[in-house]
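pipeline stage [seq->struct] | target=Anti-sigma regulatory factor (Ser/Thr protein kinase) | organism=Actinacidiphila cocklensis | residues=144
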Amino acid sequence: MGEGSLKAVGWAQSFPISGGVQSGRQWARRHLKTLKWTQDAPETVDAIVLTVSELITNAHIHAHSGAQLVMAWDSRCLHVSVHDSDSGEPASPSQDPDRTSGRGLMLMDALADSWETRHQADGKTVTACFIPPDHPDPHESGTR
């Protein structure tokens, strides 16, 4: 099966508070290697792994929850979703550049092509979309 015929692929894993961030980064990088475009876009892979780290950290620190991570490639965008048990809004980014925490959402703004939060009865899911450099942006309408 060639890459052109691949419609969608995805992976899911839960990460407990104990050791989950490092395990999540390693798990994400291992699965990302199976996507052919990652060889040509190492900076996108690094941005995805950093986002995975930040989202799992937010789930552990702010929600006091394990993190359920789902990565799904739909031939246009890699969706990275982390679900936690806190139904509140994600913490607002810190405006203090010297602060060592509280910048996860600010990083996501800079790294992801788009992101959103969906609330469910059992918590929330934050999903970021990453488009490889040689793919058109599915969120843009019209011509460039």
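stage status: PASS
auto-comment: The chain has a mean pLDDT of 84. Residues 136 and 142 are 11 Å apart (CA to CA).
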